[in-house]
Amino acid sequence: MADLGTIEALAKTYAAARDELAEATRVTTDMLDRVKAQRTPVIRRRVEAASNARAQLEAAIAASKPLFKSPKTITLHGIRCGFAKAKGKIVIVDDQATVKAIRRHLPEQFETLVKVTEKPLKGALQNLSAADLKRIGVTVEEATDEVVAKAADGEIDKLVEALLKDAADAAELQEAEG
Question: What's the pTM value of the predicted model, to 2 decimals?
Fold first, then answer.
């Protein structure tokens, strides 16, 4: 068993390692932001040029429908041009009326066409007392104390924690494979 002095020293080491990781993350984020700021105007111009070129091509195709009777599409310079059958959009005005109509007219396909879900909400159940949970047949497992070693700082903490979790997941994967 470690004494409090040892735990304090280990917490100090962990805090320093996290600070270094946070600084490296900030530097990387700043570099990415600078590159994005530098390249965004070029990308916007290229998006606009591509959008205009596509609009001109689509207008030319729309005005030339007789050219695309058979075949309905052709590929030119890696771009598929022509006409294709649109899938259409399903519009349901009243969900309940549609469900009733499916049940009445297509009962053999009901399970395929209608999603029926009845499932307890675990997040909401966590707000119930132990007595209420017991009364409805819900048990709580693994409600024991767990080790806490968590920084008490702000926004960068989420990113750092995600990076540490990814590192832990990668280590577990290597152990499982090795």
Answer: 0.48
